[in-house]
From TrEMBL:
Chain ranges of the Peptidase S54 rhomboid domain: 91-226
Coiled-coil ranges (or none): none
Entry's localization field: Membrane
Topology within the bilayer: Multi-pass membrane protein
Name of the featured protein: Peptidase S54 rhomboid domain-containing protein
Record-stated family: Belongs to the peptidase S54 family.
One Pfam family here: Rhomboid
Keywords: Hydrolase, Membrane, Transmembrane, Transmembrane helix
Organism: Cellulomonas biazotea
One GO location term (cellular component): membrane
Segments passing through the bilayer: 55-78, 98-121, 133-152, 158-180, 187-205, 211-229, 236-260
Chief location: membrane
Lineage, top ranks: Bacteria, Bacillati, Actinomycetota, Actinomycetes, Micrococcales
Family annotation (Gene3D superfamilies): Rhomboid-like
Length: 263
C-alpha cells in the first residue's frame, strides 16, 4: 500500500508513478494534465519561442557554402543549376537552385550575402517561426528569378545566367521592414539599407537588379500577410499566403513565356 498522496488530486501514488513537483509530489496523470494545459510561449507574431541557435538560418548558410565549394571543385556544377529565363523554361527548378550559387570570380559575393542573411535571418526566424521563415526565403528566391523572366523581354536577357541569394535576401529586407513597422520599431535603418542596395544594383555592373526587385516585392507581400494576419487566423494565413503568392508567381511566369511564344 502507498502512503504517499498526490498533492494535486489527493490520490495515493506508488513510487514508480511519483513525480517531484514544485511543492510536494504529483502523480503521472496530474503531471500530464498540467502539461496539456500549459500554453506554449509565442512571439508577438505567433512564432514559437525557441532557445538555441537559429537552425534554419544556419542550414541555409551551410547549403550555400557547400554549393559554393562544389562550384569550385565539381566540374559543371554551376552550369547544372544556374538560372536564365530560357533555362528556367526547360528546367523550372532552376528558379530556386540559382539562389544557392554565387559568383566564383569573387568571394565578396557570397560573403556579403551570407553576412546579410546572418544579420537578418535569426530575427525573422524567431519572430515568424521556422515554417513561415522557410516559405519566405524560398519564395523570395523564386520571386527574384520570376522578375528576371518578366523583364527579360525589354532587357533582351533571355539567355543571360543569374546566380546568387540576393533575391532571397531582398525578400528578407522587405519582410523585416513590414514586421518592424507592425511591431512599432524604427524602420529608418532598414529603409536606408534597402535604398543603398537598390542604388548599388543599378550602378554596379554585373548585378541583377530585377532579381533584387522581385525578391523585395515578394518579401513585402508575404511579410505583410504574416505580420497583419489576425491572431486567430495566423495558422491559416501561414499556409494560405505562400500558396497564393506562389500561384501568382507561377501565373506571371507562364504569361511572360506565352507572350514571347514559348507556350
Amino acid at each position: 500500500m502507498s502512503y504517499v498522496r498526490c498533492q494535486r488530486c489527493g490520490r495515493p501514488t506508488c513510487p514508480d508513478c511519483q513525480r517531484q513537483a514544485a511543492v510536494g509530489v504529483q502523480c503521472v496523470d496530474c503531471v500530464a494534465e498540467a502539461s496539456r494545459g500549459t500554453r506554449e510561449a509565442r512571439t508577438a507574431l505567433g512564432g514559437r519561442l525557441r532557445g538555441g541557435p537559429p537552425v534554419v538560418t544556419i542550414t541555409i548558410i551551410g547549403l550555400c557554402v557547400a554549393s559554393y565549394v562544389a562550384q569550385l571543385v565539381v566540374p559543371g556544377w554551376t552550369r547544372q543549376w544556374i538560372f536564365s529565363p530560357l533555362a528556367g523554361f526547360v528546367e523550372p527548378w532552376r528558379f530556386l537552385t540559382a539562389a544557392f550559387l554565387h559568383s566564383t570570380g569573387s568571394f565578396l559575393h557570397i560573403i556579403v550575402n551570407m553576412l546579410a542573411l546572418w544579420m537578418i535571418g535569426p530575427y525573422l526566424e524567431q519572430a515568424l517561426g521556422r515554417a513561415r521563415f522557410v516559405a519566405l526565403y524560398l519564395l523570395s528566391a523564386v520571386g527574384g528569378s520570376v522578375a528576371v523572366v518578366l523583364l527579360a523581354q525589354p532587357l533582351g536577357a533571355w539567355n543571360v545566367g543569374v546566380v546568387g541569394a540576393s533575391g532571397a535576401i531582398f525578400g528578407l529586407f522587405g519582410a523585416v521592414l513590414v514586421v518592424m513597422r507592425r511591431l512599432g520599431g524604427d524602420v529608418r535603418g532598414i529603409l536606408a539599407v534597402i535604398a543603398l542596395n537598390v542604388v548599388i544594383g543599378f550602378v554596379v555592373a554585373g548585378i541583377s537588379w530585377p532579381a533584387h526587385l522581385g525578391g523585395l516585392v515578394t518579401g513585402l507581400a508575404l511579410g505583410a500577410a504574416y505580420a497583419y494576419a489576425p491572431a486567430a487566423r495566423r495558422q491559416l494565413v501561414g499556409w494560405l499566403a505562400p500558396v497564393v503568392v506562389g500561384a501568382a508567381l507561377a501565373v506571371a511566369t507562364l504569361a511572360s513565356y506565352a507572350a514571347v511564344g514559348l507556350l
